[in-house]
Design goal:
By secondary structure, the protein is α/β, with parallel strands linked by helices. It has helices at about 1-25, 40-45, 65-75, 95-105, 120-125, 140-150, 165-175, 175-190, 205-210; strands spanning about 30-35, 55-60, 85-90, 110-115, 200. A five-stranded mixed β-sheet has the order 2-1-3-4-5. α3 runs parallel beside α4.
Length: about 210
């Protein structure tokens, strides 16, 4: 009789332990802020990721690159987010501002997902293995749509530059491949002057982190 009673108590104790572990895991869910320079393309892309073990907030302000990083530093000071990532491009920014923004973000413990020249270069790497040769941002739309032709999908650069669900679904299937391609390019850079590292992107670092919580 004593043994049976002890066994019953033990099972109850185990249930309580498992419940506490589940509650602890739920409470420790990562919170990620993705702060974008662009107000259309980047937010419409990142908002389509569905995370199960983290919360993700995507915001934008359309400020200058330096202004974006400075605002992100202020967000970090609130302690509201476990991770804060700054997403910005080289296009439209001077080389000094671009490099300074990356340096400032790194100094303050922020993640940096830059693209040189533009964010669409990251999208293009899902579709072709373009290994770092210079490509002007004006050529992105034509090349992306060329690769999307068989899927009967068009990326509308001239409208609001949104990543629609159909386009995202095509990209998502090739995400791991895009990461490999982007990282290969990144590893070839000397990292002394990232503004000269065209074409390249570190968006793969952010996306790799996001995939941990899918």
């Amino acid at each position: 009789m004593g043994l049976k009673k002890k066994s019953k108590t033990s099972k109850i104790g185990k249930r309580n332990i498992y419940q506490r572990r589940f509650e602890d895991t739920r409470e420790q869910k990562q919170s990620i802020l993705i702060y974008c320079e662009g107000v259309n393309t980047e937010p419409s892309y990142f908002k389509q990721f569905e995370l199960s073990t983290a919360t993700i907030k995507v915001d934008s302000n359309g400020e200058s690159t330096i202004g974006l990083v400075e605002a992100a530093i202020s967000f970090k000071a609130t302690g509201k987010y476990d991770q804060i990532w700054c997403v910005f491009d080289m296009d439209g920014n001077g080389k000094k501002n671009f490099n300074r923004a990356i340096e400032l973000a790194n100094q303050n413990g922020l993640g940096v997902a830059y693209s040189n020249q533009g964010f669409e270069y990251w999208l293009l790497l899902h579709l072709i293995d373009h290994q770092g040769q210079k490509m002007h941002r004006k050529d992105y739309q034509k090349r992306i749509n060329k690769e999307l032709k068989e899927s009967n999908i068009t990326y509308n650069w001239d409208d609001r530059k949104l990543i629609e669900k159909e386009f995202f679904d095509v990209l998502y299937k090739q995400t791991e491949l895009a990461i490999v391609r982007a990282e290969r390019i990144y590893n070839r850079l000397d990292h002394k002057n990232l503004a000269k590292g065209e074409s390249s992107t570190t968006v793969f670092m952010l996306v790799r982190e996001i995939l941990r919580y899918i």
